[in-house]
Amino acid sequence: MTSMLPLPEFKLLQPTTVAEALEMLSANSDAKLISGGTDLLPSMKHGLFKPKVLISTKRIKGLKDISINEEGLSIGAGVTHTSLRRSETVAGFAPALLEACKAIATPTIQSMGTIGGNILLDTRCVFYNQTRFWRDSINGCLKCDGSICHVVQNKQECFAAHSADTVPVLMVMGASVVIAGLQGERTVPIESLYDIDGRDSGRLKKEEILVRVIIPKTRGEFGFRKLRVRGAIDYPLIVTAVRITPDGGRVVVSGIGPAPIEIQEVTGAIASGDFSKAAEIARSQVKPLGTHNVSPNWRRHMVEVEVRRCLEKTSSKP
Amino acid sequence: MKDSCLGRGGRKIDGMERITGRAVFTADMTRPGMLHAAFLRSPHPHARVISIDTSQAMKIEGVKSIITGEHLPINFGVIPVAQDEHALATDKVRFVGDEVAAVAAISRSIAIEATRAIEVKYEVLEPVYSIEDALNPEKPILHEGRRKASNVLRRVFQKYGDIDAGMEEADLIIDEDYFYPGSTHVPLETQTALAEWDENGKLTLHSSTQVPHYLHKALARVLQVRTQDVRVIKPAVGAGYGGKSDPFSHEFCAAELSRRTGRPVMFILDREEVFYTHRGRHPAKMSLKMGFKNNGEITGVDFKVVSPGGAYASFGVVTSYYFGVFMTLPYKLENYRFEAKRLYTNHPPCGPKRGHGAIQPRFALEMHIDKAACQLGLDPAEMRRKNGVEPNTETCNGLRITSVAIDECIEEAVKASGYNEKYGKLPLGKGIGIAGSAYMCGALHGIYQNEMPQSAVQLLVDRSGRVAIYSGTSDIGQGSNHMLAAVVAERLGIEPTDCHVLEADTALTPVDLGSYSSRVTFMAGNAALSAVNQVRERIVSAAATKLECEPSDIILSNGEVFNGVSPDRKLEFKEAVVLAESAGGTVSVVGHYKPPPIGSRFRRQSVGPSPSYSFTAQVAAVTVDCETGIVIVDKIWCAHDCGKAINPTIVEGQIEGSVYMGVGEAFLEDHTFHTSGHAKGLHFGPSILEYKIPTIHDTPEIEAIIIESNDPEGPFGAKEAGEGPQMATVPAIANAIYDAVGVWMNEAPFTPDKVLRALKNKARADKRNAKIGGAE
Amino acid sequence: MNNDLVINLNVNGDSRSLLVGANRTLLEALRGDLRLTGTKHGCDAGDCGSCTVTIDGEPVLSCITLAAEANGCEIGTIEGVATTGKPSQLQRSFDDNVASQCGYCTPGFIIALDALFKHEPDAPENRIREILGSNICRCTGYTKIIDAALEAQSVMLGGDSEG
After folding, report:
1. What is the mean pLDDT of chain B?
2. Fewer CB atoms inside 10 A, N or C side of chain C?
3. What is the pLDDT of residue B771?
């Protein structure tokens, strides 16, 4: 075979119901779910994951539904970003989510990747998202195959960055996720999925499946911005999502730490229309790391700019 | 009445096969019993190889052969004076990614698995990364056993005119430092080779190369076989931009593994390996001192450049000369001093990338000119135009200049962009900038010294009316096949599509030195012209007899051969060929091109002179976001003197592609390595995701303007278009940034972070100056 | 552990049955098993777009798609674009505008644009540009590619036809 980066061997299971998938998860100790595969398969080619079994969610019925009910807008975890962007229901209910979907990687990847995959996207780091040869040259890192963190040395803490474009928007919209397990379904606020350590990519329990996300009907205006180095084919340097209501609002920033950051105590500033103040508050609560050609100072400065511009853009919407 | 194909734009003769997926690239081939290969590469930047144990790896089922340095002990290197490479490490490894062993197995997976089972003991040595360390005699030497123990691959020092006198007569002297970063080609097709060693001891290597001829020679040398037993074929190649101009380890290893196993071996480098193979743009730290008169004349250029060039020489010796040679163009200059040092460091080796060696100095020189214009109160475009070199002159460093249209390039770029209406007049944050440049059309001398032609083209015309063009040229996407067909068709009055080009097969095609140094149109085009003129003569002579007129009255046009005096007397082209074939036997001729013996006054100036030079002027319009430092290029106008556009659409494509690559280098591309911690010396991100080549969203609108100076020696007047247009992109952008926000970005790439820092420094300085001014 | 699966693909209208390993990518199946080498591998990691094909009309990166996941689907590759030997309008526009230099990325661009025009025949220029952001071309600076796409669209919508 003429491939450059062969995938390791694994067994592929293709269940058609959530119950079947849950049984497969519990029957196989070293199994991993695969949805769009846009992040998992490159990572597996680089040896970041070596599951013996992949359980595909692609054929599970019901994971591709989009509907509106009394809870709000329900989106199946298997809905692709392209399907979301084509949905008039979503366009009417959550236009800011569409902006976030549009900012993901590339349109082709949007037609493969799913909302569920994005919600559970692995964290990223320049010492982690590398080939096996590259990582072997530094004996791995805390997140994979190693014992030290190369970002902040001498710390037993992982700084890999949460990079899911849709999550900040879902957070400001007050979304919750429905998780199916052997004991039934549980519904939790989306932010509860994100731990503070970048190592943990499996934020669900081992025998659980994210089945859908629910966006409640919430008043207010919602906005999204993504800052990236390149115009496409790029993960975020900073993702910003805001909510503005007559008496306050929310600001969530991501891309700069292991979890999305809900900016605290901005309600007053937003309510009074002082977006510069809100942006300053955001800046004071983040401590981004530098990366290639991007200093921590500039990135921190840009948090302030992005938050302010996001608030301005959102408030000036007709 | 003549329907000329010269200057006609539109499709290439072989365009559609690439658009339908029919074109066969090396990796698309397969052979019965074909094996797949993989490298074991060094995890250390600098280490001595103590021992290699392949015994466990050989036991893996499906592994057929493993080779290490001892199996390929002969050194090589594209430049004869710097043959410092081995296919696999023989004593030391010199960068993370250096090749240590190669495996052939029944699948790529097994080959990779086997590389991991090879045990290598290394003695780790101190690496040398920086310019300072490379110049420090206390630090380890990368290549021991050279005549002089040093990490300086080459120092070049040249002096023309009287630099001291030049500085003396200057009204203004500007002396500043610049840095231009390394970058890499990222051809979409990774380097690939398919080796087949047959039962008669003959090797056929299909390879994604720009230089089949040099590869042919190197294979014979390293594999210790006769050149007549080696055949190199270049199939369709997924571009190069200079990145496929060296003979590479995988090519030798594929061949050796095939010899050992008796089976075809396919060696496909993965994307990460292309970043280690590199041979990209040399990072350059530059000091430039220039003297100017009040009227803008340049009185002297004193230029120093030092480049940490990586672990092996590649073209580095040539780069050292190219750093300096084009600084005497396109502006008049009498007094010039130049010093370059190309260093060895423990990084992947740099080499030739589009605009080889000339891009970095051009960045410094063109910014210097704008700075001078600002200080002297002159218009930067007009200052350039007034000082442009004249046709049929010689530069102070001995370059013979024939056709020149730098003034027209500047005029047209200024006109199209509205430069005069905009420069210095746009609101804060909006800016426009200009830069000029010049580049070569092939080097006068090949890479190894010889008296033979640089390019030959064989034509075989037969009674079918078909014209077969045999040429050693390497079309890597630039359209050289079309160029050859158009040159031949034009002289024979037929269509380019009536020609069939067979290119780049060292067993079948006459030698051409390769697709590098922008030499192909000029040199292979002239070889084709020389061949077709001979064919034409035979056809004309046979037709004149038949049509009862003087040969000089014969006209070849629209697929017909006319009696020009009474045009109703005519033959089909095919009929005329039959007459010629009947009269004198098979119509088959060879034409060749050898550059004219241009004697330079300076013996030392043997690397760099060209039979002709292309010229370019470029204008960039930018928007700078003063709050973020983010620069958007709104548009680039590039006027390029290509001599004559044989196919204007292809020329435009070369201009657009060049500017695109310049924009990438201006903002995004920076071939960098970790500088601290455990990953020190490792490539920052050897992937397309991390090494951020521009997408369509990062590419500005580009307006290509073709200027034709009709070179007296170029084929139909043609010069080059593939590299020159990249020269001026980055300085034009830098000058536009200054026009927009008043900061000089002496260090590329212009990342938002750097631009914002420059803006803050400027604000501080302005405030200080205001304070001082207020106090007076 | 036998990880092989039998899959059925309809590739460019031809029904094909293949035995593939679970870890076989669709790209490997197309290029290796079916010898449809028009689809290219540029990075093998989902970054460049050279391997773009369609599954049931949607563009996907075949280098990061499992062949087994495409079981039962209709696959469209570059070999299926020029039907009965006649290049599509988009291909002709690419040719006329020399929108393909080295050509390595071209099949991916053709497939991505075809998929767009199938769903949105009258997509405005900014939408076409958005789609082209999926694919990297290192030769053309994208200028001729956008020219070709707009020209083809105009002809297909019944604008200035070249007959």
Report:
1. 96
2. C
3. 83
Helices B525-547 and B480-492: angle between axes, nearest 10 degrees = 20
| Interface test mutation site (partner A, options C66, C73, C116, C130, max chain A beta carbons within 10 A) | C66
**pLDDT tens by residue, B435-489:** 999 999 999 988 898 999 999 999 999 999 999 999 999 999 999 999 999 999 9
Cross-chain residue pair B236–C142, CB shorter than 8 Å: no
- B657 and C140: CB-CB below 8 Å? yes
Nearest to B586 by CA among B458, B448, B463, B419: B463
Q: What whole-number distance in Å separates Cα of residue B46 and Cα of residue B48?
A: 7
Q: Does B684 sit within 8 Å of A137, measured CB to CB?
A: no
Instruction: Sort out which chain C residues have CB atoms less than 8 A from A41's CB and list them.
Output: 25, 46, 64-66
Residue pair B97/B465 in contact by the 8 Å Cβ criterion: no
Contact C87 B239 (CB under 8 A): no
The pLDDT tens digits for B131-185 are 999 999 999 999 998 888 999 999 999 999 999 999 999 999 999 999 999 999 9
Chains in contact with A via at least 3 Cβ–Cβ pairs below 8 Å:
B, C
Q: Tell me the residue ranges of DSSP E strands in B161-295.
A: 172-180, 192-197, 203-207, 230-233, 265-268, 284-292
Helices (H), B565-673: 573-584, 648-667
- Within 8 A of B23 by CB-CB distance, chain C residues are 103
Mean pLDDT of the B594-598 span: 90
Which chain C residues are within 8 Å of A56, Cβ to Cβ?
A: 66, 69
Distances from the Cα of B204 to the Cαs of B88, B207, B252, B253, in angstroms? 21, 10, 12, 13
B288 and B270 Cβ atoms separated by less than 8 Å: no
Residues 6+ apart with CB under 8 A from B482: B12, B13, B14, B15, B496, B647, B650
Q: Measured between CB atoms, does C35 come within 8 Å of chain B?
A: yes
Which residue blocks in A54-138 are alpha helix, DSSP H? Answer: 81-86, 88-93, 95-102, 107-110, 115-119, 132-137
Tell me the count of A-C CB pairs closer than 8 A: 106
At residue B292's C-alpha, the angle toward residues B413 and B299, to 5°, is 105
- And the tokens for C106? 């071209």
Does position A1 have pLDDT exceeding 70, yes or no?
no
CA distances from B460 to B136, B508, B535, B559, B675 (A): 59, 13, 9, 17, 58
Select the residue from C95, C139, C151 to test the B interface by mutation, using most B Cβ atoms within 10 A.
C139
How many other CB atoms are found less than 10 A from the CB of residue B332?
Answer: 16
Give residue B158's identity as a one-letter amino acid code.
Q
- Quickly state the pLDDT bin for B734 (edges 50, 70, 90): very high
User: Which residues lie closer than 8 Å to A48 by C-beta, 6 or more apart?
Assistant: A122, A128, A129, A144
The strand order across the sheet containing A72-76 reads A66-69, A72-76, A208-215, A176-181, A184-189
pLDDT beyond 70 at B578 = yes
Amino acid at B611: P
Half-sphere exposure of C46 (CA within 13 A, CB side): 27
What is the nearest CA distance from A172 to chain B, expressed in angstroms? 25
Rounded CA separation A37/A113 (Å): 7
Cβ–Cβ contact C46 with A under 8 A? yes
Q: Which of the other chains make 3 or more beta carbon contacts under 8 angstroms with chain B?
A: A, C
Pick from B276, B351, B315, B279: nearest CA to B94: B276
pTM of the model as a whole: 0.97
Instruction: Say yes or no for a CB contact (<8 Å) between B187 and C132.
Output: no
In angstroms, the first-to-last Cα distance of chain C is 58
Separation of alpha carbons B548 and B568, rounded Å: 12
Structure-token match 């190592």, residue found:
A199
Tell which C residues from 105 to 124 touch B, by Cβ distance under 8 Å. 105-107, 110
Q: Which helix (H) or strand (E) holds B90?
A: none
